[in-house]
Structure formats: structure tokens, C-alpha cells
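Shift notes (night). Ran DMT family transporter while the centrifuge was going.
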Amino acid sequence: MNTLHARLRGYGTFWQTMTPAVRGIILMCASTVAFSIMHGLVRFVSEVLPPFQIAFFRNLFGIAFLLPLLIRSRFSMLRTNRLGLHALRGVVNIAAMLMFFTALSISPIAKVTALSFAAPIFMAVLAVLVLGERFRIYRWLAILSGFVGMLIILRPGIIAIDLGAVLVTGSAVFWAVAMILIKILSRTESSLTIVAYMGIFLGGFSILPALWVWQPFGLQTLGWLVMIGLFGTLAQMALSQSLKETDPTALMPFDFLKLIWTALIGAWFFAEIPDIYTLIGAGLIFASGFFIALRERQSKVTVD
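Came back to this:
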């Protein structure tokens, strides 16, 4: 036991000797692995359970993992004067999640992941329209480039646009709206309060859709649902901590690893090989989002 404690202390010391940027990158890479595994599990379990039911259990176990933190803070993190805005964020977020999980159940997971990279592009549009941020030509050029990437993946008029592609694109729009709401909430709310209400409202709002399509299942399926909740929570925790360690623009390039992991999972477990158009389009979308984030950071530094 003493040897184990000594090793753990050694690992902790080694972790602290790393620079914040290195720790952030490691955590970001870990989050992409956890997210990709969760997406693969959602695709696997969707063969026996409806996506709405899977989303409910994802949120249920998310609340279960959050409960110790709530108890430890004596529920102080739930103090807020913006309950309505938290609820609106929950409505938008659950719409994004249900659409995304449904897309995972009917479309290749690499394609779903590729199109999900469009969320920052939609967010940039909403930041101008909703938050009144300044019009910047580089932003619109990057947005245009991102939409070209989407067109390369979807190829409307050349191939039929499947329902999964429509759903994941809609999910990216809703997630962009959710990010705008998070940005507004962060002006007055702590990150812990925002996360706590996300878990509560997502869990509550996912009950009725799950009951609408409820299917009985056995212990083995329950085990897979627990794993979805576990990897989803680990992914969120690693992502949140990575953003605390270093600047998001330093981490964004590593988010593209999700496409690599999901492509490998899709090929190995579901015999899904992403075509060249998906890879090219995903690269263009991701590069556009990264360029917007990088220029926004440079503009902020200049203003400051």
C-alpha cells in the first residue's frame, strides 16, 4: 500500500512539473478519446434502444456523477438569479443532444463528427446577430470557407442528403445557440453553476422524450448505458480542466483528433470507411473554426 501511495505521489509531482500548456493538451487529447468512445457506444447501443432513451440515461448518470459535487458545496452552486436563462439553455441543449444522438444512430460516426465541427462557424454568425459583435471581414471569409466545407461533405444535388446529415447540422446550430447562452450566463454565473443547471435541466427535459419511445432492456445494456454516462462525464471533465489550464486556441487543433478516433471506431466496429469528401470537408470546416478563434484571440489581445 505504501508503495502504491508513493507511486501516486510521484505521478502527481510529475504532473505538476509539466507546463500548463502541456497539461491542457494532454487533457484535451484525453477528452477527444472519451468523446469518441461515447459516440461509438451510442451508435452500438442504438441498435437495441432508441436514441432518446440513450440520451436520458446519459443525462441521468451525468447527474449522478455531479451529485457528490453538489452535496460537497451544500448546493450553494445552485444559487442564481437567472433561472429562466438556465432553463432556456437546457431546452436548446437537449434539442442539440437528441438530434446528435439520433444522427449517430443512422449515419457514419465520422461524418457526424465532421459536420459537428460546424458549431463554431454558426456561433460566429450568431455572435454578430445576437450579441452585436463587430463585423469583421476575416470572420465572414472564414464562415464562407466553413460552409464550403459543409457543401463538400453534403454535396447537395450530387448525392441525396440523408436525414442524419440534416440532424447533425441542426444539432450544430442548436449547440451554437447554447454556446451563445453560456457566454451570456458566464457574465454573472460561475462555471460550476452553469454546469450544475445543465445537468439538472438536461436530465429533466430528457425524461418525456425517453418515455415516449421507451423500450425494455437487460443488465448488459444497462452496463453499456453506464459506460456512456461514464465516458461522457470523463470527456466533459477533461475538456473543462484543459480549458482552465491553457488558452482554447492552443487546444483547438487537437480537437480534430475526434475525427481520427471516430473514423477508426467506425471502420473497426461498424465497417464504415469515411470517403475523401468527408475528410476534405471536415478539414476545411475545422480550419475555418480555428482561424476564427485565433483571430478573435489576437483581436482581444490588441484591444486589451
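The radius of gyration is 20 Å. The longest helix spans residues 276-303.
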